[in-house]
Amino acid sequence: MQKPLHPYNFDITRKLTLSIILVFVFGYAYSQEVKFKTNADTIKIGEQVDYTIEVENISNEDFVVFPKDQTFVPLEMVEDYKIDTTQPEAKNFKLTKLYKLTQFDSGTYSVPPQLVKINDKAFYTDSLRIRVNDVVLDTTQQKLFPIKPSIGVEKPFRIASWFWWAIGIIAVLAIIAFLLFKFKKKRDLAKKRIPPFQQAMIYLKELDKSSALESRNFKEYITELTNITRRYLEEKLEIRAMEYTTNELISELIFRKEKKKLALKDDIIAEYEKILRRADLAKFAKSKPDLITLKSDRKQIENFLKNVQSAIPQITEEEKKKDKAFQEALAKKRRKQKWIVGIILGAVLIIAVVSAVIATKGYAYVKDSIIGNPTKELLEGDWMTSDYGVPPMSMTTPEVLVRGDYELPESLKQNVADSEMYSSGSMYQSLYILLNQIRFKEAQEIDLDAVVDGIYTDFEERGAYNIVTKSEEFETIGGVKGKKVFGSFAIENPITKSDIRKEYQILNFGKGGFQQIIIIHDGDDEYGESITKRIINAVEFKSLGK
User: pTM of the entire structure?
Assistant: First the structure.
């Protein structure tokens, strides 16, 4: 069972019903100083009606403002004429303004009261009911002609939708392939990684095969020779050997030796320092070492690398455990990366599938199917048929209407024998259904036209605006005649203060009292419209014997 969302909905419903009761029980009484007149109350589709507003007893000191723009909705203003003055030389004269109105849809329409301001004081005209009839075609007088054959028109050039889908799929596959290739390349590099000592030996052999010595490029030779050791030390000892100066590098080696992290002899470090100094002189002081010295340095460098490799302490059991923990953390990180790649690929696939469904089925279909739509669920759910009030009124609704009680004013109690109200939802929800039933103590003729005239005013008093009202005759499946009022309006959302557009249909009957069915749903909601049609088409009055 749906509960009202707005705390004042019950009071609004009661006031709306009581206002309508006052309309047809006591009638309307207006004190008008501004008059209007029309040349017809029934027109054909597209025909124009003259709507004239007259303001009498106006002096030169008075300031009068007539209605402007499209204030005659649901009728459309075609043209407004200049203000005409009767006896302008007199002390008090009359102002007249003429409007041409029309409508291009058949039905009965209510033109709302028009506002005329005189010296900042507001005056309103009476409301006007206009009947718009269809144009009847007399086929006995008007000749009928066969339908003309269709004319072929060359279709303009347009790229087929499948082309864009193909481009999108190819782009997605390209991204997936790029990610897989990058991941595989990183994994292959990790597999092919050579230990630092072996890599240094390979670099030395490559240097031996180079033509640096034959071409007397001694500077390049000794620079690369020392860089091989620096790269080895950087990877093996995890120091910034490539960035260190000679002094910093030698200091780091001595420090590690003193901390017993590197078991190198002093003469080995001293010999290595000499080679680094000669390389610095060759690079920065343009010194040229001789060939014999360079060949000796080559042997000393290889010897230095072997000594460092053997000088590093063996890994203890504790370090092995730490290394094992590191490898496990590394494996965990790789699994996490795989999960991330899998999630990204899954998200891409979901986006592609959803995009395809939206392109073929439309956004509304996806939103209603995945996110859900309350009126769609009501329409497709189990409906119930119940009898309400006396005489019994049978209604088929998606939810059973719940009875609500309210107090009638003292002025109406002496005339009313019984009153009942049944409802589901609220005006601020996606669907609102309301049934009002009133029985009188004495038989009374109900003026349904008066009820129709009062609905616009009642909606406006309840905070509705941009109201469009139409009316027409209605008959139930059992032959009970009534009046149907339908149209749209807007109300302010009490929370967000934005506009809520609503569409409504109201059925009014006078069978043994007064019966009224109000159905309001969100504007442009096809499911709400289908629910409304289904409810209205199933309304039936039952005799007390059934």
Answer: 0.43
